[in-house]
Amino acid sequence: MKGKESRNLLKGSISKNLFLMAGPTMLGFMFQMFYDLVDMMWIGKISAKAVAGVTIFSTMFWMVNVLNEIIGTSSISLISQSYGKGDQDRTSLCIEQTLTFKALVAVIAGIIFSFILRPLLGFFTHDTVVSQAALSYGYIRIFFLPIMFSSYTVNTAFRCVGDARKPMIIMIISAILNIILDPIFMFDVIPGTSIQGFGLGVFGAALATVISITVSFLIAFAFVLSNKTKVKIKVKRLLKLNFQIDKKLITIGLPNGFEVLLRNLVGIVTLKFITSYGTDAVAAMGIGNRLFSFAFMPLLGLTMGSSTIVGQCLGAENIKRAKATARYASIYGALLMVVVSVFAFIFPERIMGIFISEPSVIEIGIPMMRIIIPGLIMAGVVMGYGSVFSGSGYNTPYLISSITGRWIVQIPLMFLFVNVFNLPIIWVWTTFVAADFAEMMVILTAYNIGKWERRRV
C-alpha cells in the first residue's frame, strides 16, 4: 500500500493516519451537506409549506436508505479486512458484489416506495400544497435510487483501501454542480440576477440533485475502470451474484440496518408529534435536520476513517492499534462538536435567518439549536468508539444503543411531554439530549466488554 493516495494505515502516527483518512472524507461530506443547506435555503424562498413538504419526504426517504446502510456497513468490514490481509482478489470480489447487489436492492426498493409514497404522506399532512411539494421532490429521487446507492459504493471502496482523496474530489464536484444547478432549475429568474431559469420549483431542486449524483457516479466509476487505482474490478463479474458474499452483505450490517430503521422510525414518530405544533414547527425541524446533518459531517468523516483503519488493523491482528485509533477518533470528535456547539449557542437566530425569513419559524428554531446541537458532543464519543464495531463487523451494540436511547428513553418522554402534559415544543428538544446520553452509555459499555476484538468477517 505504497504511494501518495493509498497509505499504509498499519504503520506510522495514528493521529496522522486518522486525519489523512478522515480529513478528505469530512471535507467531501461537508461540501455535500453544504449543498443540502443551500438547497434548503432556496426551498425556503418558495415557502414554509415547500420546506415542510421536502422535510416530510426526506424523513420517509430514510426508510429506503436503511438498505444502503445495511449493505454499506457490511462492505466496510469485508473490503477493509480483505485488503488488510493482502487478498486483492477477494477485495475486488467484495467491491463487485457490493455494487451489483446494492443496485439490485435499490431497484426493488424504489419500485415499492413509489407505490406507498402517496398513502404515507396522508399520515403526516392533509395540506395539498405540502403534499404536492413532497411528491414533486420525491418521485424523481426514487427513480434515481440505484445510481445513488452505486455512487456510495464506489466512494466507500476507495476509502476502504486507504484512498480518501478521490471520494473527496468526487463529492466536491457533485456538491458544486448541485449548488450551480439549484437556482437555475428552481426559479423563473435566478435570485439576485436577471438570468432566466426553468421555474421548476421543488422539482427543480430534486432534478439538480439527481443530475449531480449521476455525474459523480460516472466520474467515480471511470476512476475504477481506469485500472490505475487500488480499487480494481472485473466487469464481467458484475453480472453475477455471489451467494456467499451477498449473504454477508445482508447479515453483517443487519444490526446497523435495524438501528437506522428504528432511528428513522423515531424521526417519523417525532415528526408526527411535531405536526401537532403546526407547519411552522415542521419547517423549523426541517431546517434543523439539515443543520444537524451538516454539524454531524465531521463525526461521520472521523468514523469512516477510523472504521477503515480499525478494519485493516483487525485484518492484520493488531488490536492495540485498533483501540488507539478509536480512542483518538472519540477525543477529536467530541472536541470538534464543542466548537460547533459554541457557534450554535451564540448565533442561532442568524443561522436560522439564512434559511427562512418567517419570524415564527425562526422563533421555534432558536431553542431547538441551543438544546439539540450540544448533544452532538456525546455523539462524538459514540461515533469514535463505535467505529470499532463497523470495522470489526460486530454491529449489535449500535442496535442496542438505538433501542435504548430512542425507544426506551426519547419516545416515552416525548409522549408524556406532548400528549399527557401538553408542554411547549421546547420540551420535545430536550428528549434528544436524553437519548444521546443513553446511547453513549450503551456504546461505551459494549466497547469495554470487548466482543468486537474477536470478531472477523
TrEMBL record:
The keyword Cell cycle does not apply. Belongs to the multi antimicrobial extrusion (MATE) (TC 2.A.66.1) family. It is found in: Cell membrane. Keywords: Antiport, Cell membrane, Ion transport, Membrane, Transmembrane, Transmembrane helix, Transport. It is a multi-pass membrane protein. InterPro entries: MATE_fam, MATE_MdtK, MdtK-like. It comes from Oceanirhabdus seepicola. Multidrug efflux pump. This is Probable multidrug resistance protein NorM. Its main location: membrane. GO terms for cellular component: plasma membrane.
